[in-house]
Amino acid sequence: MKSMTHKRTKASLRRIGACAVALWMTAAGAWGGGIVSPLYVGNLVPVLDQYGRPMAGSNRSAEAARRSRVEIRTIAHGPVQPPSADGTAHPDNPLVSTNSVGGIGMNTATDHSGLFCMVFPNRLPPGTKIFARAYNAPTVAEASFYADTAIGVAPGEGRTSLVLTFGTAQPLDSGDDDGDGLANSWEKALGTDDRLTSDYDGDGMGDQQEMIAGTDLKNADVRLAFRSIQQESSSAKSPGAASSPIRMCFQSVPGKSYQLQFADTLVGQQAFNNVGEVVTAKEGQTEIDLAVELSEAKASGVFRVVLVSP
Ligand SMILES: [Ca+2]
Ligand SMILES: [Ca+2]
Ligand SMILES: [Ca+2]
Questions:
Q1: Among all ligands shown, which has an atom nearest to the Cα of 197?
Q2: Pairing of strands 39-42, 117-120
Q3: Does this model's pTM top 0.90?
Q4: 6, 250, 254, 287 - which has most CB atoms within 10 Å?
Q5: Which three-class secondary structure state does DSSP give residue 184?
Q6: Ligand 2 centre and the CA of 160: distance in Å?
Q7: Ligand with the closest atom to the CA of 202
Q8: What is the pLDDT of residues 111-144, one digit of tens each?
Q9: How far from 86 is each of 50, 71, 141, 174, CA to CA, in Å?
Q10: d(CA 278, CA 309)
Q11: Which residue pairs from 268-277 have beta carbons closer than 8 angstroms and sit at least 24 positions apart in sequence?
Q12: CA diameter of the chain
């Protein structure tokens, strides 16, 4: 176990060194070819945004302004302090230097990898406690979520790299000004923060419910709802069926799964029972058509669709 960890660590260090080799060459040239032993700081496990996707960023210069921001900060004393709701860092966690700001993908070969690598030609004093903070946007002002790494300690000359590991993305502003269950940071990320309302598009489905359902919070034509329900003519009735099929159509989101249910009435404690199997919307499928036959004839009743997958 020990040797596996050792091997993995060695491999990790090589990978960090490789990702920053271009910058290392630049630094060596600038110093006239003298002995250079910079410190590489980076991550090997992608930092994820609020949706669980690797944060975006590319090494292409045309994409520079769109890289998710990464900062290396120090700890004056105490634990790492969270940033304020507008993203401003706590005074106890100053930047290592004015240059200790970079971006996801800046020195990596793959786009939108959630990886960063920063080079410190002037090594930090050994023992300096540092951490990285990534924002889900190119600037603090645009960001809605951030992620911090655990604290790392700057190594002595014998080591050239320091691997940091990020925690999960946290909202910068966990308040809920419009009381709809969605944190202000989610409202900002979803673009619904310019008005205080729990149903931004006014389609009758709340913002939080739309986010869970995967429907568009800013389009009143899109929500989890039936488009049509009607009973087919008696000629469509199967032999032995209690009644002719009921054909229905409801809006769906690709990848989400739904269960149709039926109850005789909404009065009292009437339970809904499953009708048919769970249905999953395929890629590009924004409507699901079903024709169902009930086991016994009903004069009336209520159908509903339940979202069964996140
Ligand atoms: Ca809210
Ligand atoms: Ca809505
Ligand atoms: Ca909607």
A1: 1
A2: antiparallel
A3: no
A4: 250
A5: helix
A6: 52
A7: 2
A8: 999 999 999 998 899 999 999 999 999 999 999 9
A9: 17, 16, 7, 11
A10: 10
A11: 272/302, 272/304, 275/303
A12: 91
